[in-house]
Amino acid sequence: MINVLTNVRLDTKAGNPCIKDNKSLIGFDFSSVIPEYEIKKEGKNYKIRFHDVLLNMPSGSYAIDDGIINKIFISSNDNNVEVKIDLSTETSYEIESIDGIPAKLNFFVDRTPLKNILKGKKIILNPVYKKTTKSPTNLSSHIPMMDISKKTKELLTLLEADVLISMINYSENISNGDFKGDVIINLTTEISTKNESGFKVYYDKDNEKSKKLAELLNKSIERKSPLDNLGMHPTKYNGTRKDAATVTVIPGIENSRLDDAHLRDIDYKSKIALAIFNGILTYLQ
């Protein structure tokens, strides 16, 4: 019987159960048995070669972008399948084999080296409270913003960052709290008069750290969000500290029916949380 690689499982959501154990998973499903394979380390990356197996999926590049795994490259040649795993930093791996139909080979990547970047960093996540809403389904914006904040906090605290969720307004968040953050991210929605749909990021026009963080967040959200990128926009934060990077993330337009549906969606909120995590991680690197 011909053995076939039928599926590669790539779970890139913040709710991935493996992430709670500080692991990232790449899963390989085979039609009959797990073939013979070899793993080689190339710099910080890994290459897996499966022998005597056909590929029943398109060759090419698959983005993962979960903080530790950037992407994987899959190719097939002479009944061999080669998988190259592109990592953001040097780390170790574990293998789990599960017999059955399909037979599963799970490749777990250790996320704990990311602690070298995040440990002890102070981060404030501020899901901005609004008393009223223009949502077409009467969704109070601070509810999905709190969900995103909690998912982001979990990702960060697993790697020993010091994270505070604070639902107060911008100026109070910065000037009145004892928790002095390296990064301060407000999360809220915005009402549009232009029938817009999409996400955007605001930054402090007088703070280069804020602008840099906004650039990284804008790029990381663009890689995860199906909504349009409405760009980066300068603003002014009263009373903010110049030694901290303060930004405001708008994951969706409040009065857009499309965006409202996404802000109710668990999968979308999980993707935005992972994108914010990625942006913070890259900034702190």
TrEMBL record:
Domain of life: Bacteria
Database matches in Gene3D superfamilies: Zn-dependent exopeptidases
Listed GO biological process terms: peptidoglycan catabolic process
Domain (MurNAc-LAA): residue spans on this chain: 179-281
Signal peptide start-end: none
InterPro entries: MurNAc-LAA_cat
A molecular function (GO) term: N-acetylmuramoyl-L-alanine amidase activity
UniProt name for this protein: MurNAc-LAA domain-containing protein
Organism listed in the record: Thermoanaerobacterium thermosaccharolyticum (strain ATCC 7956 / DSM 571 / NCIMB 9385 / NCA 3814 / NCTC 13789 / WDCM 00135 / 2032)
